[in-house]
Amino acid sequence: MKISATQTGFALYKEADVIGRCGVTPTPKGADITALSVLPQWRRKGYGSYLLKEILRRFGGYDREAATVFTAPLPADEGEGLFWQKFGFAPEDGRLVRRRTPDLTAVRFVQDYLAAHLPHPKLCIDATCGNGGDTAFLCRLVGPEGRVLGFDIQPEAVTSTRARLEKQGLTAELICDSHANLLQYARPGTADIVMFNFGWLPGADHSVFSTADSSIPALEAALAALRAGGVLSAILYSGRVIGTDEKQSILGWLRALPLEKYTVLVCDFANWADTAPLPCLVLKK
């Protein structure tokens, strides 16, 4: 099977024959599906589901971090209605509508908090660039007048982050060095935000991951870099590959910070697994 674009949408092929078609008009947050059909002899074999899933995927319908809206004509009968219902479509104002709000991930929770708490920062530090998601967020947050430093000890992470920023028209000072050395690049008491997202580099060798031996000195350097009123964020991980040592060591370090100098939040998602990402925030007084 393959799906090919047409002038009005997409065609589903089985070998050389077109067995299904879907009319699609892209919209800013998804797509309007004007029609979807499969040849009678190929119905009830999963081909319609395959075609609709692919349309939803191509237009962001399964993106956990995006708000999407898809529309389609009302079904002709109950059976067709049940088909659309399986994919989250429901009648609304004379159309079928599928709405999806972004999931609240640990990363989004931290970013939303920082954007609301510090809307106009001047100096921000991404201490764990990875593939550049937080770096790009900080670049947009500081705007053209601000400065962003991005650290990662893995050259491939710096390369990936640079490519992401270039694609989005953003700039940052990217440094291939341990985040424990960040005070060599930023003066104490000058940073508004320092972000950490521990663990491993997504898409790379998962046997390479952060450990408490380097992470805690980096967190201590980050606190020194922060100005009064600044915020440090850290997302902690655990699991079969990396164990719990780093997570538990950092939690112990966080809980020992003096109250007269810092407010510490450990933001547990009560109905998530114990190994789920754990966002933490340190507010410097």
Can you tell me about this structure?
With 285 residues, the protein is α/β, with parallel strands linked by helices. The chain folds into two domains: 2-100, Gcn5-related N-acetyltransferase (GNAT) (Aminopeptidase), CATH 3.40.630; 106-284, Vaccinia Virus protein VP39 (Rossmann fold). The protein has helices at 47-58, 78-85, 106-117, 133-142, 155-167, 212-225, 245-255; strands at residues 2-5, 9-14, 17-27, 30-38, 68-72, 90-92, 95-100, 123-126, 147-151, 173-175, 191-197, 226-236, 262-266, 278-284. The strands form two sheets. The chain has a seven-stranded mixed sheet with strand order 1-2-3-4-5-7-6, with helices on one face. Strands 10-9-8-11-12-14-13 form a seven-stranded mixed sheet, with helices on both faces. α6 (212-225) runs parallel beside α7. InterPro entries: Acyl_CoA_acyltransferase (IPR016181), GNAT_dom (IPR000182), MnmM_MeTrfase (IPR010719), SAM-dependent_MTases_sf (IPR029063). Residues 1-114 form the N-acetyltransferase domain. GO terms for molecular function: acyltransferase activity, transferring groups other than amino-acyl groups; methyltransferase activity. This is Ribosomal RNA small subunit methyltransferase H.
